[in-house]
Specification:
Blueprint lengths: L1 E2 L6 H11 L8 E5 L12 H7 L10 E5 L2 E4 L2 H8 L6
Parallel strand pairs: 1-2
Antiparallel strand pairs: 2-3, 3-4
Length: 89
Amino acid sequence: ALVTGPGFDLAAFAARADEALPPYARPVFVRVMPAFATTGTFKVRKIDLVRAGFDPQKITGPLYVRGEDGYEPITPDLFERLNAGQVRL
């Protein structure tokens, strides 16, 4: 999950990840959020992110998966194909 500003460029993020990270360390899924939910001690509530997973029905913001040409939005159809193992990640 990323908290970004209004000028966030997903293609530039993908290019920078390709440049700076080895293939195994590049994010496969990217969720863009306006802010992270935090606990009383200002820790990120990761359990909420884990429970939602990458299901577009549970997530209100933009959600992307890494494809051959960068990141593409996850639609309900693509989500079903991902779960069925029909899409190679």
